[in-house]
Amino acid sequence: MNLENAQVQMRKGILEYCILQIISRGEVYASEILEELLAARIMVVEGTLYPLLTRLKNAELLDYKWIESSSGPPRKYYILTEKGSAFLGELSLTWDELSSSVNSIIAKSKK
Fold first, then answer.
1. C-alpha span between 14 and 60 (Å, rounded)
2. Domain containing 46 — which CATH number?
3. 3-state DSSP call for residue 61?
4. Which residues contact 38 (CB under 8 A, 6 or more apart)?
5. C-alpha dihedral over 69, 52, 12, 93, to 10 degrees?
6. How many domains, the chain?
7. What are the tens digits of pLDDT across the range 68-109?
8. What is the CA radius of gyration of the chain?
9. Which of 29, 37, 67, 101 is deepest in the core (most CB within 10 A)?
10. How far apart are CA 83 and CA 4, in angstroms?
11. How far apart are CA 68 and CA 95, in angstroms?
12. Which domain, by its residues, includes 34?
């Protein structure tokens, strides 16, 4: 089994959740999402991020608005919809349960 491939698959599994968490804090520009993900060592490229944002928008979890920029063309800022907030709440419950379960298994392995 390829370690790098397994690591990539683990990160992909939580990418949607992380993006929704970032957007839940307020209006955010795509490059800001990308920067935060990279700073958290969740390696993602624009070619992955933009289609995912579009998919989340089409699922009515996100919306966006255009805001004029003083340094160029208007920018698209993403916001969470009510449906997106509810979805994120459910994902958070799942994450908490999963994280607790995994940590329990890891703790037993360390004994």
1. 19
2. 1.10.10.10
3. coil
4. 44
5. 90
6. 1
7. 888 888 899 999 999 999 999 999 999 999 999 999 999 988
8. 16
9. 37
10. 34
11. 36
12. 3-109
